[in-house]
Amino acid sequence: MSQILYEVTDRVAVITLNRPEVANAQTMELLDDLDAAWTRAADDDDVRVIVLRGNGRHFSSGHDLKGTGPRPDKITLESIYSVEARRYIEYTLRWRNIPKPSIAAVQGKCIAGGLMLCWPCDLIVAAENAEFSDPVVRLGIGGVEYHGHTWEFGPRKAKEILFTGRGVTAAEAEQLGMVNRVVPLAELDASAMELAGQIAQMHPFALRQAKRAVNQTLDVQGFYAAIQSVFDTHTTGHGNAFSVCNYPILIDYEEMKKQVKAQ
C-alpha cells in the first residue's frame, strides 16, 4: 500500500498521508514520497492549490520510531544531523516556499513531527477534535526539528507548550492564529476543498506574489535564519536524549528503538 496518495481535482492537488494503521507516523520513505508529491504538484501547471490531508482518525503522530527500510548499523550525532537536515529542514522549507497556496486539513492528533507537515502550509483548516502538541522535551530534546513554535504560538505560549508538553485544542490554535478555520470533523475535507476551490479561481501569478510577499516579510523578521539556527541547537538535544535514556553517543539503532519505545 502506498504511503502517499496523490490526485488532482479541479486544479487542486490533494496529497494524502496513507498510514492510518499507525496514525500516519512518518518513516523516512514516507517523507521522501511526500517531498516527491509536493514537487509533482509544484511542477504541474494545471495545479493552482495544494491540499495536504491524512487518512484515518489522526493527521500524524509524528516520527515513526520503528521506521522501515535500510538503516546504518551505528548512529552518531553526525549521521543524525545529516538525515534530519535533509528531511526535516530542507524538505519543510521547500514545501513552505512552493509558489502555490497550500492548505493542511488536520484531524485528531498532530504530534511533534506532525507539526512539521502542517506548519509549512499557508493555511490550516482543523477539525474540532484536532489537537496539536510537541512533547519531546520529555525525551530530553528542546522541540521538534522545524522550530516554528515561536512564530505559530507567540513566545510565551510557545514556552508553556514546550515546557509542559500539553496539547493545544483546535479552538485554542484558532485563537492563537495558528489555525484559520475550525469545522466539524465530518465537514473537514469538504471545507478544505471549498477553500481551495475559492483560491484556485484567483490568478496564479498574483497568488504566487502574495505568498512570496508574506513569506519574505517573515524572513526579513528572522524566520528563515531562526529555523536554521535552532535546528543546529536541536541536534545537541539528541546527545542529551542519549544521556537521559542511558545511551552511549555511538549506539546500535535497533537498541535505540527498543529503549525509546520503553520510555
From TrEMBL:
Its EC number is 4.2.1.17. SUPFAM superfamilies: ClpP/crotonase. It comes from the Bacteria. Coiled coil: none annotated. One of its GO terms (molecular function) is enoyl-CoA hydratase activity. CDD domains: crotonase-like. Belongs to the enoyl-CoA hydratase/isomerase family. NCBIfam families: PRK08290.1. This is Enoyl-CoA hydratase. The lineage of its organism: Bacteria, Bacillati, Actinomycetota, Actinomycetes, Streptosporangiales.
